[in-house]
Amino acid sequence: KIQEKDKTIQAIQEKDKAIQELKQENHKLKEAASEYQYAPTSYRFSDDDKYNPIKLREDIINLQHSLENYITKCKGNVEINISEVQNLLRKYGSQTTITIDQKPLIKAVLQRHVIEQIIKYGEEYFEFDNLHNHWKYGDGAETNLYNKTYEIAQLAEILASERDGIDETTRTLSIKLRQEVFAALGNRGFKKNINKKKHDFIKKNKSNLNKEINKYRKLKDPEQNQEVEVMAGEIIRKVVALFWFLIEIQEPVAEYRWFNCNSHIQPKYMEGTWEGDEINNIAVDICYFPLIECKPKHQIYTPAKVLHKRRY
């Protein structure tokens, strides 16, 4: 009887042990399921993703090269309106007197003006007054997506901060939403319609930009002029994509910053042609491409491009 009792106790203990092992295994499975459920909510782009920080830098450099090609080298068969370029330089705070031989300065101020003009076009387009256009023509789809994404993202932030509970899906919803929509806009925004017609925003402002820049430099060769003016549409698309979409994909959102004339030279944030031992004797004359950075992460995607002048 004692032996039978011992066997019964042993059997009960083995069952208890098996139950505990099953409970532990069940707990592990629940944890694994939870991790699987929330894995897709990560808002970081992988190394091979089209819109990781490395790709952002590549897009910026590509735009810089496109701007240089559009402005041209400003010599040879190029007529420069020095008085108008001088007025433009004054607009950006520089008191430097331009001569026809100062090609780098002429190109720099024109590149800055191209960017500023396109930003102006973009600000007008993304106003709410344009929201109705997409219903009939589809040409307002970008402004609708842009503005409504921010509306929904704000609601998602309220849901995360004002409703009880803790979960990764809700916490990252506004970030994921912003990244996905702006990645799509970066890919397709302002490209030709499927019927091969140019987007109205591009068509209209391509003409406007060419007329504006021709006030300052004109190409005497008709064939070369046509080749350069064709570039305007794609440059507009690239500038808008960068300043409205691509910097918004980063987390935290990246920012751009212009440096004013007479600012101190900061090699960490600027790119130019100075020597290290002359930093204290020079200052910014004109910044012709802004610094692209993420302040919270102290990350610089690309430095500002500047031309310097002597301090007096």
Automatic annotation (TrEMBL):
Keywords recorded for this protein, A-Z:
Coiled coil
Q: Which residues form a coiled coil?
A: 5-39
Q: What is this protein called?
A: Uncharacterized protein
Species this protein is from: Rhizophagus irregularis (strain DAOM 181602 / DAOM 197198 / MUCL 43194)
